[in-house]
Amino acid sequence: MNIELFFKAASYALVTGGFLTLALTGRVDVATCILYSLALIASWFADRPGLRLQISERVANWCVVGYAPFAYLDLRYLSSSWITALIHFVLFVSIFKLFQVKRDRDWVFLYLLAVFEMLLAAGLTIDALFLLLLTGFTLTGLAALQAFEVVRTGRNLRQPLRTVTLSYDGQQARQASRPVRYLLVMTLVMAALIGALSVPTFFLLPRWNTGLLSQTFSEDTAMTGFSDLSITLGSVGNIKSDERTALRVRVETPLPPYLHWRGMVMTHFDGREWTRPEANRRVAVRLQNGEYILNERQPRGQVVVQRVYLEPMNTSALFHCGQPVLVSNLRGLAQDATGTLYRAEHGARLSYTVLSHLDETPEEQLRQDPLQYDAQTRATFLQLPATFDARVTQLAREITAGATNGYDRARAIEQHLKTRCAYTLELQRGNEPDPIVDFLFETRRGHCEYFASAMVLMCRSLGLAARLAGGYHLGEYNDLNNTYLVRQSDAHAWVEVYFPQTGTWVEFDPTPAAAASPRTAASGLLTSARRYIEALRTFYIDYVIAYDAQRQRMLAQDVGRTAVQYQTTAETRLYRYREQLRMWAISQLIWMYSAVTGTEFFHHLTVLLVLAGILLLMLAGYLLWWRIRHTPRLLFERRWLSWLAPLFRWTLRQDERQSAVLFYDEMAALLSRAGHRRAPHQTPLEFALATGFEEVLTITRAYNQARYGDRLELDTRQIDRALQGLRQRLRQRRSGFWRGFRWLGGR
Description:
Structural class: alpha+beta
Helix content: 40-55%
GO biological process, one term: proteolysis
Oligomer: single chain
Keywords: Hydrolase, Membrane, Protease, Transmembrane, Transmembrane helix
Strand content: 5-15%
Number of domains: 5
InterPro entries: Bact_TGase-like, Papain-like_cys_pep_sf, TgpA-like_C, TgpA_N, Transglutaminase-like
Number of helices: 23
GO molecular function, one term: peptidase activity
Largest sheet: 8 strands, antiparallel
Transmembrane segments: 12-45, 77-96, 108-126, 132-151, 182-205, 601-625
């Protein structure tokens, strides 16, 4: 691949990456995705030198100007929001820029459009796949910018790059430039550096309690779910047909299966619709040190910390389990008389933390409650519709005939509805005009709100203060990250009965389907992959999208605790090793003292001698290793490995040129110790003639023939005899010098 093709491929990959991020948001319709994909493929082939399918810059500009009226019509009548119209406009401009004859500034404009698409998509999605696309976008962006600069600079060069031909040792190798490989390597290196710098910077930059989760263009996509003010019979069944994600909740440990994510509470029933007048009387909760404290009393029962990630909904109620004690990571919180919590950002994505306690009041204590309500409680939670049928009261009395207290009456009604009625999403009406009477006496089939409404009415008819609660089942539990995935199809309604002696609202769930445990991801390759993907999404939301000041403090505390643990562990191990060393030294001193003073002195002396011998052998081995490192290889082999001479000669014949160099190096080392050193200007043959040794001349000629000539086979025996003769002559010269020195001294 040449540099021009690499530049084009990287540029198109960058443009495609920007489009894919927009498609990930779900704001690009299928027709637009298909048209833009076809335009990308067609523009790639239209940009080939042999074809003339490109348009001029003037035509492209006029087409963009002509799109302005259509953009207005798209905004007013075709698109669902201004964001969708903006996406259509950006993609339209990108298509015409791809088809026009592109100069350098046109490529830069396409790059800017791709970056704008990426930034726009960042505000439209919180999917973890965006992080993968962003990584690919960064890689292709770096490659495209580098290739763009190389191509742009190459056009300005007067002479093209030349291929340099080098030769070495008689063998020629052609070194060709590889710019594409170089750009790929530099792209990966730069991306790694960017990641190494940006990731710590992202986590260390100061944060405010705003986060990115609510700073998205998500108001237009709020899901239709529970209403703040009312629940109509049959409305929850419509919600349960929606499989979209409603919220994600991260906990520390799995929760009991009977719990729910409680949202709102309904108190008034007119026969067909539940309402709550208390919703209009909200009281703002005061912020204390970044937290909203709802109950300053000591929590009773198990404490549960929930990190909730709420998708856009048309309700302002907050969802939680148990009795909330503390809420954090919110910019505004309100509460009504029923305990329902409200947020300030209506219809936006949100993340918040709730600390709740699970009521664990013993059943015996609830059975002993005399159920003495005050006037306000009786007026609110014993209210019955004006069209209330007395047959409901009669049925409730028949069901609870054997119960002697309020708790057992509520349990009896719950069991009756679970066992005598069936759950269905397909409603069938009977002959009764009252939907609850029709449900209890005719069809005995309905949604969860029918079961809950029937139980509330029967409890109230018996003097039990009760209300209807709306929210979700626990959902699907992912044990990889301790997170519950709650969908709209998990919407549910249940009953809460008030026991004034303990001041608790106890949950009762009369719906048969609600008795099942929360869904857990089944086994299988695809299911496991989906669990890992969902865990990655939750991690991305938790540590990237919803990363705020509180999360930053928690992360810093975790890092600090981990550092302290490592420090404590290191100090403990160091102290233990030091004590072990001290005890070992003391034991050795005691052993040596007992060895000298005891009867086994000679035995221990033998052991010490053996140890000393081992140390001497180790020292000798080290000296031998040092000698080998500082002795020429061939000289060492000749001196110390002469008994392996046959094998040595066979190995030398494997590469005659290398053998010649080794023989010459050994000869040069011998001559250097004798005072004969080759001058820089001397050739090997001139140096041999200057020494006056016939053996040196023989070895030098063999070296030249093997090193620079065509002769590949060497007479190693002749060279070996020459080396031996040279060694003897040099030794004789040294001995003659010392004899002469002694003779002069004698005179």
